[in-house]
């Protein structure tokens, strides 16, 4: 085999999961999740997680194994992905990392800052502080403690603001200081990698996004959103696309058609942000448009 691992990134609804599955079948591989939302157990429909049919065709790892009430971090992902990569190597399977979370790909290849763990007590105290004084005042406190993080974030970036505040509380050092230190190595550092970004033309991507959300509705996305209605807004899972809009349907504060339109627009904006991130950080990857026999180039990488 000519590569140690294959990385397939792309915006939401770009077809990257299907490409990874096809490659896994072609090259005796294992598909390893690299998407921050598809880790959640209770949100298969809204996160477009691979279904039972796909999982039966090739082994899948790191999908649907975390509860939505948990704080799932990049550091935890890196530890889990490192273990999944080692398992694949031992089983002589080709590791195929696929997803849309750029920070996860960066951690795999470039490593992650070695930031001390934050205790549950500090995390809870920080959350309570934000609730007591409000998001804006809380953000001002963060800027006073960590001006660099404050300049980079917005008050509405709830999880990232909480994270920066927690790190300062736990270590008495700004998160930006920790991030400048030499990172822990990623498991893929120095290896022979085939790296792809699947980037459909914008109009095609928008059609795929709109169609997929309509399929989610048919598959029971509203009922799934109702079951997820108790998620705390500070938890990472609260950012699952479409969740807010479909919860509004369940409380009858938004009609289904309005929720669908709003969720589709939010998903298109998210895809745009993903592509911007990929262009800045993955310019040297192989960029593919999913038309014709584009899988040939991916298959060739492992020949």
Secondary-structure map with pairings?
Layout: E1 5-9, H1 16-27, E2 29-33, H2 52-57, E3 60-61, H3 74-90, E4 94-99, H4 102-110, H5 120-133, H6 135-145, H7 147-152, H8 158-171, H9 175-180, E5 193-198, H10 202-219, H11 221-227, H12 243-250, H13 256-281, E6 286-288, H14 295-300
Parallel strand pairs: 1-4, 1-5, 2-3, 2-4, 5-6
Helix pairs in contact: 3-4, 5-6, 5-8, 6-8, 10-13, 11-12, 12-13
Number of strands: 6
Strand content bin: 5-15%
Rg of Cα set: 20 Å
* CATH homologous superfamily label of the largest domain: P-loop containing nucleotide triphosphate hydrolases
CATH class of the largest domain: Alpha Beta
Structural class: alpha/beta
Number of structural domains: 2
Instruction: Output the number of helix runs.
Output: 14
User: End-to-end distance, in Å?
Assistant: 6 Å
Global outline: globular
The biggest beta sheet reads: 6 strands, parallel
Strand order of the largest sheet: 3-2-4-1-5-6
Percent helix range? 40-55%
CATH fold title of the largest domain: Rossmann fold
Mean pLDDT: 93
Q: How would you spell out the order of helices and strands?
A: EHEHEHEHHHHHHEHHHHEH
Q: Return the CATH architecture of the largest domain.
A: 3-Layer(aba) Sandwich
The residue ranges in which pLDDT falls below 50 over 5 or more consecutive positions are none
